[in-house]
Each structure stands twice: as C-alpha cells, then as structure tokens.
C-alpha cells in the first residue's frame, strides 16, 4: 500500500537533480506539495517541477537558495510558508563532495564543505522547527562511507562532514522526539548520480560496481523509496536511526574476498603508494 502524503508539505533541498529530484517526485506522487530547491541549475529545477505538476498529484514550487547561507535558508522557509502555508517534512539532501587529500585541502575547501553539508542542514532545521507540528519528519543525509572499513584518503573532508550530520541526527531525534517529530538519517552507498561520477574514469566507476554483489550502482529511485517510507505515517516509531542504502558490499560489511578486490582496486587507482589492507583496517 502506498503511503498517503496528501496535505503535507515537504522541502527537499538539492532537488533539481539526482537523488533530491527522485525524492521530490516520489513524495509528490503520494500527494505531498513539494519545494524544489536548487543553487545554480534553474532549468533542471524547472524540469522537475514541470514533471511533478503535470502528474496532477502533489504540487511543486521552486525556490532558489544556497543551503550554506543562513539568510537563504530563511528565504527558503519563508517562501515555503508563503506559498504552501505549512511545513511537515524536511529532507536535507543537498550536499557536495570534492575530494582532496590532506596536503591539498585548503581553508576554502573546508568552508565550502562544512557550509553546505553541515552548517546548512543544522541551521535549516533550526529555522524550520518552530513551524513543525507533531508527526513531522526530518531526514538528514550521510554516506555509507562513515561505516566503511576502508575509505580512500581523499574522502577526508566529505566523510567528516557526514559524520557530523549523523551526530546531529542522533541527538536531535531525542530533542525533537519530545515534540513528536522524528529525525532519521539515510546513508546511501554508491548511487549513479553526478556527484558520484564527477572526477572518476569509467574504469573507476566499473571498479565500484564490481564491489557489489549485484555488480551495479544504486539508483536515485532506490534511495527515494526509503525516504518516502521514513516520512510516512507508517514510520512513526522509526526515530534516531541511520539507514544504510547501499546494496551491501564493503560499505556495509567487509567480506574477505571483497576486501582483496577492494585493496587491489584501490592500489590500481592510487598507484603503488597504498598501504597493505591490514594497515588500512
Ligand atoms: N551519489 C552517491 O553515491 C551518494 C552516496 C552517499 C551520499 N550521498 C548524498 O546524497 C545527497 C545527494 O547526492 P547526489 O548524488 O544526488 O548529488 P548531486 O548529483 O551532486 O546533486 C546535488 C543536488 O544538490 C544541489 N545543491 C548542491 N549544493 C547546493 C547548495 N549549496 N544549496 C542548495 N542546493 C545545492 C544541486 O543543485 P544544482 O542543480 O543547482 O547544482 C543538486 O540539485 C548528498 O548529500 C550526498 O552527499 C550521495
């Protein structure tokens, strides 16, 4: 049975493309009115909103806002309230990943990652919470990398921002739980999106596919399926959880054979300087 989200209003940050777009479309298909948020890609946001409005279930509006800016987060909330009159669901999906090793990381890289992935979600929740009633839902976005036994060194900044978000979620689940609001985190594993593909060769992408039992990447729709459950009434007793959506593989647990594959793949990707698998575990 499909959950009904009729009458609910959802803000989905970063919903012009990829995972956010799939979530916005799915929530709208269950009747929610959705806010399509983007930072630079107006035509993609318009295409998502047009698609939703053509389906005739929930309505979509578009609000441009850089989630890393407190002022723009405020604008996002005010515009949502002005046009839809309420907020029930906040999906903190917008995120960036620009990988660099320790010696190459700049202050600007640090600020950009922490503004978008950490500061933005926290202050957006702070701004939204006074408008949320019992039964509302907050969904944070992490990554399965926070649980992986091996993470390449250039994921340093990105993985650390997601670690911070998981702690927000864990603590806020109790704080906001007292008001009947659930707070959960989803942690996707490799999902075939622009963020995942950027900076990788086809060979590297095939390497990631090969690590999974089904020899493929996940899809944005597979993430949206889990999010639509978590925001539904049926998930009322699911709170403070981090749900891994990664089709298993080394992001979920370490099989010995996969570890061997992973280690040789990482060595191929990074040259001969990788340490032994046992050093990395
Ligand atoms: N793909 C994966 O394998 C994977 C794995 C684990 C976790 N995740 C997490 O899942 C989430 C979505 O990832 P994705 O792969 O769908 O990313 P994506 O393909 O890069 O899409 C990012 C979306 O976020 C928007 N965005 C970026 N910076 C923003 C900002 N400052 N303010 C507002 N919107 C902003 C983009 O808008 P524009 O179109 O305007 O640029 C776009 O709609 C992220 O939090 C990511 O960390 C992804």
Automatic annotation (TrEMBL):
InterPro entries, alphabetized: NAD(P)-bd_dom_sf, Sc_DH/Rdtase_CS, SDR_fam
Annotated GO MF terms: oxidoreductase activity, acting on CH-OH group of donors
One Pfam family it belongs to: adh_short_C2
SUPFAM superfamilies: NAD(P)-binding Rossmann-fold domains
Listed PROSITE patterns: ADH_SHORT
Keywords linked to the UniProt accession: NADP, Oxidoreductase
Family of the protein in this entry: Belongs to the short-chain dehydrogenases/reductases (SDR) family.
Protein name: NAD-P-binding protein
């Amino acid at each position: 049975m499909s959950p009904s989200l009729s009458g609910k209003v959802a803000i989905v940050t970063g919903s012009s493309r990829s995972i956010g777009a799939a979530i916005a479309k799915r929530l709208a298909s269950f009747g929610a009115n959705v806010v399509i948020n983007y930072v630079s890609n107006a035509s993609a946001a318009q295409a998502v909103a047009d698609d939703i409005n053509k389906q005739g279930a929930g309505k979509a509006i578009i609000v441009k806002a850089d989630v890393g800016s407190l002022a723009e987060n405020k604008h996002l909330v005010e515009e949502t309230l002005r046009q839809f009159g309420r907020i029930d669901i906040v999906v903190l999906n917008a995120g960036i990943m620009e990988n660099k090793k320790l010696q190459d990381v700049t202050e600007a890289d640090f600020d950009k990652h922490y503004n978008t992935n950490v500061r933005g979600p926290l202050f957006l929740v702070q701004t939204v919470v006074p408008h949320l009633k019992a039964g509302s839902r907050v969904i944070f976005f992490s990554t399965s990398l926070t649980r992986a036994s091996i993470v390449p060194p250039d994921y340093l900044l990105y993985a650390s921002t997601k670690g911070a978000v998981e702690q927000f979620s864990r603590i806020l689940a109790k704080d906001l739980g007292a008001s009947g609001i659930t707070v959960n985190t989803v942690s996707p594993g490799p999902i075939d999106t622009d963020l995942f593909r950027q900076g990788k060769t086809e060979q590297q992408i095939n390497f990631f596919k090969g690590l999974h039992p089904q020899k493929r990447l996940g899809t944005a729709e597979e993430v949206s399926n889990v999010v639509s459950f978590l925001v539904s009434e049926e998930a009322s007793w699911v709170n403070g959880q981090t749900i891994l959506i990664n089709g298993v593989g080394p992001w979920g647990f370490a099989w010995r054979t996969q570890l061997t594959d992973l280690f040789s793949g990482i060595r191929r990707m990074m040259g001969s300087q990788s340490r032994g698998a046992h050093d990395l575990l």
